[in-house]
């Protein structure tokens, strides 16, 4: 086989795959359609655009997605390099200035001499050569039909949503206050406290608000991690108070007490001029978003820089279709990466892109993979989860310790969960550092 790979899609997974292929000295044809046609969720021409949130979630390694970030840092992930360079304050989470983040990645990809950019839409998977399909959950049109033909797939999908973004100067800070939950990370969030009466007024307005029509949404197949706030509210009066509006760990300085409910807003850009409403993914009509969210103290006159939207996500029945290297069982030259495989989340997509690119590079060079991450690592456990043919009811999955190999022995005491997760992290990072050393040696030998 020639030392050349085609990557379709320049999102998080596609860019990560293209970068590791380039590090192996493999020429990459990277196809991205945004210059000719954008999906309903995309706005920028830059690559690796974050469409739902600017948060990459937990930063600490005792959390599975936090550990996955460390694993990716070990192996030189481009996405993590960009995230660290564009980080903005977010308490115990890693959040980024989304424009800086995607600009950083776009610049690195466009200036990589091994990567040739093709600003055009791909409507059919190439019939020859090694291909990585990283077209994301919004894959549609002729390419979607071709994937269905190739895989014999039924129409698997769920609905995802994005939260609105408001301008910092339009938030009434006489009612809102700055703080992080439990004081972790400094005063990184703007908090809008609510009394019981204010909360109930908001709740009633929300459950009765007019929703935007979304084709096929009648059954409300939603991903639990990005549930529309109105769907959450419909599950019970107090559901939001145990979710995004929980007041625990916050004290309103105006009263000296914990509020009945509290909305947090997270910084969305480095200049601190934009804030997104945490957990407020929605499919309310745009005027209804302004009206209903305007009942929350501090947001009465908020200026909306970006409205919340909902979109349909497609994913493969991966356990029936993919190997643990993300290649197609029926055609080993074709790899899939990113959310279309059923991994859910920015960092999870990145990890699948890294592994798909790594294994595709080995296939192109006709070498055995020098290291295979196993289920002792989050990265390896995700690859095994999406390829486990014993799974009969497959659903998209975030990184979690439930799919990672258990630690031997028992952990006792009130901190046993943290100690156990810390031990899992130590074991994982030891293996990933080994992977990184082997990868560096392999790349050095390739250069010689």
Provide the β-strand percentage band. 15-25%
**How are the strands of the largest sheet arranged?**
6-2-1-7-17-16
What count of helical segments does DSSP give? Answer: 12
Q: Describe the largest sheet.
A: 6 strands, mixed
- Corresponding CATH architecture of the largest domain: 3-Layer(bba) Sandwich
What would the average pLDDT be, to the nearest integer? 90
What is the β-strand count?
A: 17
| CATH class annotation of the largest domain | Alpha Beta
What order do the SSEs take from the amino end to the carboxyl end, as H and E? EHEEHHEEHEEHEEEEHHEEHEEHEEHHH
Task: Summarize, please.
Helix content is 32%, strand content 17%.
